[in-house]
Amino acid sequence: MKRLNVGVICYPTVGGSGVVATELGKKMASRGHTMHFIASEQPFRLTELTEQLQFHPVKIEDYAVFQYPPYDIALANKISQVIVQEKLDLLHVHYAMPHAIAAALGRDMAKSDIPIITTLHGTDVTILGAKESLKDTVRYGIERSTITTAVSDGLKEETYELIQPDASIETIYNFIDESIYYVNRKRRPNIRKEFNIPPEQPVYIHISNFREVKRIDYIVDSFACILKQKNAHLLLVGDGPERKAMEHYVEKLQITSSVTFTGKRQDTNDLLNASDVMLHLSNKEAFGLVILEAFACGLPVVATNIGGIPEVVMDGKNGYLVELDEPERVAQYALQLLEPTQYEQFSQEALDTARTKFNCEHIVDQYEALYEKVTKHV
Ligand code: GMT
């Protein structure tokens, strides 16, 4: 297919949508396309810039009359400039708010009819799109896009329900680059030592941005139920608004010696390999990229039956699904999974899920086919 010049708009900081945008960009670059990332900072996973992977920073102007610096407008302005300067063939926007709207505006500013693909990632619809103050804006962003994709059928359905756009939405699942993950059954003695975890003690892990939707309190409650039956350790990896409150909660439950808040870590691969089971108990989740990362390291996952999660976690196969606020049941499954025969079976199924249903090259093919479709007449 023709090699394309693609403008990619995404959030540069830690977060699944930025990770997917960057990993997809890298894969597209390796297929010969030139990817132009347009963002406020260089996306954190975009560690190397090349001829095929370029970065265009958005400069945010402040001025005394502004109550808030207008990032969305500056982004649209940059998009307009990059469309012209780099002769872009298409824009791929990740996370509708405000990126889809800025893309539509930037395209108008450039007097261009360049196609826009918008990928919905989750809270752009389920939280922001659900607000009366933003719903029309999200709908506008979707309707002004040439094609809209969602990262799960669950998110697609929720978008139709909440936003009712006059547009069809296609599901393209998330992926991870399976080749960068590994399985190490020796369970990383260095990590266990760092956190004072005895060699044979089971380790549960949760990784997130510690926002309310991640329901860390539910994870802690479930872990407290596990502790009533078995000595174990909980690694809470990441940082965010809920962290302080959760540290206090763990103290209140008097389980501090069994719980480690690691903060943000780069070595999540090693942390996963030092662990046995992931707990992911969000009350909203369009996909749950971190679940795929756990699978790629052979970890089964106990997760909530919410949003797109049941499309990733197959109950009784690669993990277990639970409803909100049933910590006893989470504990029951989490302990059951440690039983060696069951563990091996679930672990193998988890690996297979990451490598087949969410196979990276297969998903990149689907995006590339969309790129080809929307640029056919360009
Ligand atoms: O969680 C968010 O609010 C933002 C977003 C992000 O940038 O991490 O997360 C969403 O996109 C991820 C990548 O597609 C999905 O794996 C997450 O499930 C989704 N988060 C939610 O729906 C809560």
TrEMBL record:
Highest taxon in the source lineage: Bacteria
Residues annotated as domain Glycosyltransferase subfamily 4-like N-terminal: 14-178
Annotated ranges, domain Glycosyl transferase family: 188-348
Transmembrane segments: none
BP GO terms, sorted: bacillithiol biosynthetic process
GO molecular-function terms, A-Z: glycosyltransferase activity
Protein name: N-acetyl-alpha-D-glucosaminyl L-malate synthase BshA
Organism (species): Savagea serpentis
Name of encoding gene: bshA
